[in-house]
């Protein structure tokens, strides 16, 4: 089996290349100046693993050169746009999104597949992913992006807006650390973890997902209502929002208390 | 030494009552139907430990009955309003805010003191708090409330608004758990931990603090700018906000990556 990983010199590409080689596959990696078309022509499985903003362009570059019995797949955090671009290819087509990074290994990690056109190579690839111990979840491209607009998009917006609000307030973060309660510290550092990363990756995840506008709007509406309750000094409004949200969380509140209790305990012991 | 803890039948009151008794003090606890005035008349140190929304009323009830050489203090999460009410008393006055709950013990926990009028009993009380292993931080009431509007207020708003936005979206939280990345799960459960608690406590912390309007407004402005960038699809706007916030966090980004890395690792091992 011959595997081409386009953009395969990144962390994720290297990690999968090793795994393929262990199964006896031949692996072609193309980096920034690699010959993508040449790699696509030769391979039985072609994996596009380039930055999000380059994914569609790269797919358009290689699609018509892929063998009909080969498989075209990818590692992109969004699925609607890349899979629309994949549709022009005559080969097997399977969208992919590894929900983990290269630091954690494969075992029990989530991997989303968005099936479009199956063939023998797509069947082989599924078995290969399962053999790594990955937990495969199947979704349509639309379902994937709708969920990721919340899981990634909303999580990111809530973290970035906390950091940006602190900056707007000119708040003294050193004082904050000195006076902090453990929940504040966890909240601050979760925002800091996101902000420590590549702004281009996060703007791509946000902007290339067709459903992020909807989640960003819902978040703004939620914050508007809370700010308005605070501005008016309306305890009843604030408490209504609070209890409606608690009811929505339902029995996840107990789970949340248990898990974060253990996390805060761990933090206290590992300062 | 005779100590009155007004509202002392709550968790925090009971915890401190035990500690006073260990030092050989006589402790008077008054609950919902206790005689606060009677307790205030007799005691050398009077600690107000009632729900935030009742604090000012209780201080007004007892202030004129306290002995001049006694100390009036409290355990309230806000300080400007309670300490304004305390000013009418002729005794020693010291605002107090324990930054921990009764589940963690005293050792190395933060305790904020806001000094107003010192006397021998206030000196004794400081030494007593230090003897418990508490870390004493001194601030003015205004500085306290400004900091808490961020550390408590902003943290709470960002958590509640995440929960409320998920409710507005009608998002399927079970699906979210199935598909989640570890950072999403930590973010979701941190919000759930806040929502699991008493809405009245959180509306008091928000509404009785004179500086929360300012922080809530800054948060709304931050979210508005981010939502507008997403709505317009402006990657450059989004990346500007992201990098400005990162610069503001400065070397706390590295700290954030390290600490949350350990937390996520702990979560992965303790599913």
The most extensive interface, with participating residues per chain, is: A-B, 99 and 99 residues
Instruction: Determine and state the CATH class of the largest domain in chain A.
Output: Alpha Beta
Question: What number of domains of chain A?
Answer: 2
> Quaternary arrangement of the chains shown?
homodimer
Structural class of chain A: alpha/beta
The CATH homologous superfamily of the largest domain in chain A is called NAD(P)-binding Rossmann-like Domain
Count every beta strand of chain A, where a strand is a DSSP E run of 2 or more residues: 7
Radius of gyration of chain A: 22 Å
Tell me the span between the first and last alpha carbons of chain A: 49 Å
Q: What is the CATH topology assignment of the largest domain in chain A?
A: Rossmann fold
Spans of chain A with pLDDT under 50 lasting ≥5 residues? none
In the sheet with the most strands of chain A, the strands line up as 2-1-3-4-5-6-7
Query: Hey, roughly how much beta strand do the residues of chain A contain?
Result: 5-15%
Q: What pattern of helices and strands is seen along the backbone of chain A?
A: EHEHEHEHEEHEHHHHHHH
Estimate percent helicity of chain A: 55-70%
Shape of chain A: elongated
State the CATH architecture of the largest domain in chain A.
Answer: 3-Layer(aba) Sandwich
Q: Which whole number gives the mean pLDDT of chain A?
A: 94
Total of DSSP H or I helical runs spanning 4+ residues of chain A: 12
Instruction: Give the biggest beta sheet of chain A.
Output: 7 strands, mixed
